[in-house]
Amino acid sequence: MKKLSDKVTFKHGAVINNRMVQPPMLTNSGLNGMVSEDTISYWKARANSAGLVISEYNYVSPAGGPALTWADNRTQLAVYDDKFLPGLTKMAKTMKSGGNKALLQIAHTGREANYRAHLGLPVYAPDSANYPFLPYGVQAFTTEQVEQVVKDFGAATKRAIEAGFNGVEIHGANHYLIQQFFSRFSNHRQDKWGDYEAFPLAVAKEVFEVVRKYAPQDFIIGYRISPEEINPDSVGYTWHESTKLIDNLTNNFDFDYIHLSLPDYKAKPDDSAKTFAELFRPVIGKDTKLIIVGDVMSQKTAEDALNYTDLVAAGRAQIIDANFAAKVVAGEGDKVITELSNEEEKEQALTPGLREVMDKQTKRPNLNFAKMLRGLDYSKAIKVK
Ligand SMILES: Cc1cc2nc3c(=O)[nH]c(=O)nc-3n(C[C@H](O)[C@H](O)[C@H](O)COP(=O)(O)O)c2cc1C
């Protein structure tokens, strides 16, 4: 019988203290991409909770972000230059200080880099297009630029190693660049990057090469994916294609884990009676761990989620209560804080940026994407024909 309190050993030898994970979550605390004191306070409060803690998505190239950002002192964090290393080193040390293993999520936000558009800088994606849901235009990468971004993922991995993280998570989910390449909705390229699997596989190859060269043997490497991209009037891909991609990724590279980004840990596709977790588990191989996420808000749901997976991630619950994971691991689910008053927002060390995007009605962190995107002036944004 699996228990939340079990220690878990990853394929390359890293051991975590329990089966709970804090999934990557934007803290809106960067100062032009740099880690701030607010970032550090947020992590200090969460340093002794989940066994595995994953940072928010850090952008690997200058044009890779910031996304979901609305001010210079509220940006997404970055890892595209050595100048970010002192802050990231402090962040890694803080995240690990209670015995957790800490990972850096590495990402390129592609078309979603809204703050660059606001500044009048070019925003790139696999294809140039005016996406109706974005208040700015997007340009297509040249072939050389795509090759540079692949290298940027490797350089970001090297910085994660230097900063003292225990591993990296490749962000292949949630409509960001890797998913944009994998999706037939957003990738119509005519060069070799028009093969939907080419970019995710190239990024994985680059990251593994850097890890094998520079990282300790037990460095953790994970990959996060959204199992399906079903848009209001188009389909990017379904689980039939994403399981094939994961099969390819896990056959070619020794991933420690695969992380499914789900709205509900029990979610199922339209055409199967099985949950996504049940569909992906046999594909990834027995030595690679599976992480699932989505609406785990209590001891009961955390324990139930464990029936489907090796590791359970709880996101918003861990924002509301910085010690959510520690409490459910100890069987103290009755002590979990489920609603945040203004006073508790401070006690749980929410960053000022996170406090600004709290939904005041539900008293839960609820990223208001439309508001964060549209609240900016895009008059300087570059138009695309
Ligand atoms: C405030 C906030 C920020 C997020 N930022 C990221 C991110 O940086 N990278 C990522 O892969 N997912 C991000 N997510 C998605 C979460 O990792 C998670 O998948 C989602 O919140 C569902 O889990 P939950 O129901 O436990 O909150 C974010 C979610 C929230 C609420």
Topology:
Layout: E1 8-9, E2 15-16, E3 20-22, H1 37-45, E4 52-59, H2 85-96, E5 101-107, H3 114-119, E6 124-125, E7 139-140, H4 143-163, E8 167-172, H5 177-182, H6 198-214, E9 220-225, E10 229-231, E11 234-237, H7 239-252, E12 257-260, H8 276-280, E13 289-293, H9 299-305, E14 311-313, H10 316-320, H11 324-329, H12 342-347, H13 352-356, E15 358-359, E16 364-365, H14 369-374
The structure holds flavin mononucleotide (FMN).
Residues 23-26, 56-57, 105, 171, 173-174, 224, 261, 293-296, 314-317, 365, 367 line the site of flavin mononucleotide.
Order of helices and strands: EEEHEHEHEEHEHHEEEHEHEHEHHHHEEH
By CATH reckoning, the class would read Alpha Beta
Report on the biggest sheet: 8 strands, parallel, barrel
From the coordinates shown, what is the CATH architecture?
Alpha-Beta Barrel
How many strand elements? 16
Query: Considering DSSP H and I runs of 4 or more, what fraction of the residues is helical?
Result: 25-40%
- Average per-residue pLDDT, rounded, comes to 95
CATH level-3 fold name: TIM Barrel
CATH superfamily, called what? Aldolase class I
Hetero groups in this structure are:
flavin mononucleotide
Give the low-confidence spans. Answer: none
Tell the overall outline.
Answer: globular
